[in-house]
Design a protein that fits this description.
disordered N terminus; binds FE3-S4 cluster; binds iron/sulfur cluster; globular; about 20% strand; binds S-adenosyl-L-homocysteine; Rossmann fold; 19 strands; OB fold (Dihydrolipoamide Acetyltransferase, E2P); 5-stranded mixed barrel; about 450 residues
């Protein structure tokens, strides 16, 4: 494909390779960008060697995420030397954070496009073709508004919808507020319209996205909140399920929990990161709640929402975290029994408050604590999953299983992955499955009778 001919048709130029890192929101931004490019005539290819435009949508949340992108970019140096007509772009959070420093470190990069500019991607690429390299687009005030065009989605039955962008919380360790800017919520009518159009294209499950979704509505006219948004989606016909991430304990009100308990479409699953079980560390993290508050909130939610599954994130090795602090996190995990947890080693981010503290927990200790929590959670997940043995669960069928091509895969309302035997025509349907076998991550079963 990468011929050395000097004559390219527009069609040949319009091939794009895209790789995305980071959170769900970043993945959705990538989908939306690809949709825009497709509408502009681009074809998506799955090999770098077949593309004239190579884009990375990047993440800055931990050093490791950035290192990965820089190493990918470094690997493209030879390609760019051989084929200078290839356009290499860095989008998203790392683009926003590092800006033109990326051109300095990686001069073969042509485009740096921040988190609020990707709707202008087709035009920016054209600018590079016509006027040359090193185009920087990291305007912070730009309000992102992307019409959902081509249906570039990995799965026809599920879709993510961004309901708010940015974060105002400034947890002391976190780069997100700096790279994603201030919170901006979309209106309920905008969101509903997008959901309706997805549903009329066959979508059955919607996951609403926001870095701090419990503060949805802040800044909108009227007194709207997440509960109002969820209620508004309840009457979208043919929509089976609604999910929302990520919840913040300090902003998750009891009112919202009560509203969720009344709504049939909202799934019994919340992802509400605790980050630590130690009040001292939570204070240093500026999370705005104590371990006791978090525990009570979970009890309240479990009382009101039967079969609720709770997922969490934890950071180990935050500056000054002692063995005692860590044991309080262990205790919290033991007591609350999360369905699943993401565990991260603390990574200092320049510009954040915590970066002013000494990163004094040795990497060795971070690794140990990380491993301990992973093992503990694995044990708990397995024990919890065993409770579902012989029970009937409702599953939204997503399609063929990736690990076992003869079988289908789907998810319960609690977000467990379920593998079972069935015909492909079940994709997109709700079925009942009797669970026969479990691991810590997956449930296996068979179609229930009746
Ligand atoms: N908005 C979400 C998620 C933000 S990033 C929330 O508030 O929960 C996802 C997770 O990455 C966080 O929950 C946190 O556990 C982790 N994280 C963020 N910054 C980090 C850092 N500097 N080092 C290690 N983990 C971090
Ligand atoms: Fe980061 Fe805290 Fe905002 Fe989550 S709530 S994105 S952890 S600052
Ligand atoms: Fe990473 Fe940006 Fe998401 S920093 S976690 S991709 S908001």
């Amino acid at each position: 494909m990468m011929s050395s001919s000097h004559f390219f048709t527009d069609r040949e130029y319009k091939t794009v390779f895209f790789e995305t890192f980071g959170c769900q929101m970043n993945k959705l931004d990538a989908e939306l960008s690809l949709g825009l490019l497709q509408e502009d005539g681009y074809r998506i290819v799955d090999k770098v060697e077949d593309a004239y435009v190579v884009l990375f949508n990047t993440c800055s949340v931990r050093q490791h995420a950035e290192d990965k992108v820089y190493s990918h970019l470094g690997a493209l140096k030879t390609l760019k030397k051989k084929h200078p007509e290839v356009i290499i772009g860095v989008l998203g959070c790392m683009a926003q954070k590092d800006g033109k420093a990326i051109f300095k470190r990686m001069p073969h990069v042509d485009l740096v496009c921040g988190t609020r500019m990707f709707s202008r991607l087709p035009e920016l690429i054209l600018t590079i073709r016509n006027h040359g390299s090193h185009v920087l687009a990291v305007d912070e005030d730009q309000v992102v508004s992307v019409k959902r065009v081509a249906a570039y989605r990995p799965n026809a039955y599920q879709a993510f919808v961004t309901v708010m962008r940015g974060c105002d919380n400034f947890c002391s360790y976190c780069i997100v507020p700096y790279v994603r800017g201030r919170e901006i919520s979309r209106t309920i009518s905008d969101i509903k319209e997008e959901v309706q159009s997805l549903v009329s294209n066959g979508c059955k499950e919607i996951t609403l996205l926001g870095q701090n979704i419990n503060s949805y509505g802040k800044g909108l006219p009227g007194n709207v909140n997440l509960g109002d948004l969820l209620s508004a989606l309840e009457d979208v016909d043919a929509l089976d399920r609604v999910r929302f991430v990520t919840s913040h304990p300090a902003d998750m009100s009891r009112d919202i929990i009560r509203t969720i308990s009344r709504l049939k479409k909202v799934c019994e699953h919340i992802h509400m990161p605790a980050q630590s079980g130690s009040d001292r560390v939570l204070g240093l993290m500026r999370r705005g709640y104590t371990s006791g508050y978090y525990r009570e909130l979970i009890s309240f939610a479990r009382e009101h929402i039967p079969h609720l599954a709770v997922a969490s994130d934890f950071i180990v090795g935050f500056p000054g975290e002692t063995e005692e602090d860590f044991q309080e996190t262990v205790q919290m995990m033991e007591d609350i029994r999360f369905q699943n947890c993401f565990i991260f080693k603390y990574s200092p981010r320049t510009g954040t408050k915590a970066a002013e503290l000494i990163d004094d927990v040795a990497d060795e200790v971070k690794r140990e604590r990380n491993l301990k929590l992973l093992e503990l959670q694995k044990r708990i997940s397995l024990e919890e999953n065993k409770k579902v043995l012989d029970k009937k669960v409702q599953v939204l069928v997503e399609g063929g299983s990736k690990s076992d091509p003869g079988k289908l895969s789907g998810r319960t309302r609690q977000n467990h992955i379920v593998i079972f035997r069935g015909t492909p025509d079940l994709a997109g349907k709700l079925v009942n499955i009797t669970i026969q076998e479990v691991t810590d991550l997956t449930l296996f079963g068979k179609l229930a009778k009746g």
